[in-house]
Amino acid sequence: MNHTRQPNGGPAPKDNRSGSRFSTIAQWASRQCGRASTFIVACAAIVIWAITGPIFAYSDTWQLIINTGTTIVTFLMVFLIQNTQNRDMSALHLKLDELIRVNEGARNKLLDLEDMTESELEHLKGTFSRLAGNSAGADRVAGAVADLDRAEDDIDSAKQRITTP
143-151 long-range contacts, Cβ below 8 Å, gap at least 24? Predict the structure, then answer.
């Protein structure tokens, strides 16, 4: 049995070809499905199916063909769309995280917002809405800053709940 080793003597990382293969296929399929020509082909298939209706006397088998075909395509598209969404959201999060990290005035505690509960996110959203609103009064700004500081504490406690087994 041939074991590859890294230059430092440790074992080589596991090969994840099946995941990589799926990702490559999903990316290719996603690009193809988003093209106008794919939409036209799908429309043409439906028109051909409709035209053949009188030939097959609108039989149950004739109807079953379109129902089965559309069900299979819909089922597979759910997974394809989810894969694309996951990849796009991960890339977007990484880009935003990088922007937050390089901005000296940014609050780094906001990097892990996706791990917060829905109620914690709503509370934080309200805090930012108040900050973004009319900041005419110093009391209002001070209250919003205090709310934001409490939200930071909420973020810290949410992180502790997530990371503590």
Answer: 148/107, 151/123, 151/124, 151/127
Which parts of 34-135 fold into alpha helices (H)?
A: 36-51, 60-102, 118-132
**Contact (CB, 8 A) for 147 and 127:** yes
| Spacing of C-alpha 59 from chain mean position | 42
Domain locations in the chain as residue ranges: 24-106, 107-165
Q: What is the pLDDT of residues 49-71, one digit of tens each?
A: 999 999 999 999 999 999 999 99
Q: What angle do CA 35, 38, 39 make, to 5 degrees?
A: 95
Full-model pTM: 0.55
CA distance 33 to 36: 8
Query: CA 42, CA 32: separation in Å to the nearest integer?
Result: 12
- The torsion defined by the Cα of 101, 104, 107 and 113, in degrees rounded to 10, comes to -20
Tokens of 163: 């990371």
Q: Which two tokens stand for residue 87?
A: 């990849």
Q: Is the pLDDT of residue 18 over 70?
A: no
Amino acid at 68: T
Q: Which two tokens stand for residue 66?
A: 């379109």
Nearest 5 degrees, angle CA 96-CA 98-CA 100? 70
Decide if 56 contacts 62 (C-beta within 8 A).
Answer: yes
